Amino acid sequence: MRLATVKLEGNETAVVIAGEKAVTVEEVNKAEGKKWATALFEIIDSGQLNEMTDWYNREGKEKILDGTIPGIDAATLDYKPLYRNPSKIWGIGLNYVDHASDLGEIAPNTEPASFMKPTTSIIGAGETIRIPHQSERTTAEAELGVIIGKACKDVEEADALNYIAGYTTIIDMTAEDILQRNPRYLTRSKSFDTFFSFGPQFVTPDEVEDLMKLEVSTMINGELHRKNTVDHMTFNPLNLVSFHSKVMTLLPGDIISTGTPGAVVINDGDVVECRIEGFEPLVNHVRDLKVVAKEEIAEETGV
What is the pairing mode between strands 122-123 and 282-288? Predict the structure, then answer.
């Protein structure tokens, strides 16, 4: 099943997507006599996702496609972030050996190089990444996102899949020039507003035939920058869930951004994308706040 959060009539609400059609969960509830939550985070947090997925695979997909449940054209959806307030966002640095070599660094090979990001960095598909005044070199990184489905503590890798609600596309930003001054500046370099885009769609595990063979691509202005497959990660997604569950309890809706095959420098006017085979692409435009400020001054002064 594929879910998303979209804006309809001024409100953000969850929709179920089947092919070229989408229906709000509210419409599903009316048509099917259900009482499912109408916000994606609440669907995950309440434990209703498995029941919804079973319904979708049993009969829901067919009812959406044949119009039994009134829907809308999925191509017209105004996507928003899947949700805005997860308890935790974990990021994983240098998880592909090739990416580490890009930066002239040695990839961690005994434990993941993880960091956390604030919820204030979240944006969604179609929203604008803003390069901050403090950075002259900001990068964007396409990544596979893993979303936790239930409380997860001290879980072994072999059991990790049982705690995963689904997957999504992510673009993670880094003020690389700040980070290169001192590795202790990692948190600051990762935490500016708009530095974490995720969505547009949430994909349940049953839709993913082979997690390890998913191909993740960082795109810039329609051109491929770098791609790689999940099985070339140093620490695969199941390992990451297990490892971090032994650090702290992972909660429903928590996000693990699993690392990028390659970071690309972004500039004002660029369009950056995360493409994962079988997923709806995540696309964001870029504005540099330094350029914006100059444009505003020129407009005010006429110079």
Answer: unpaired
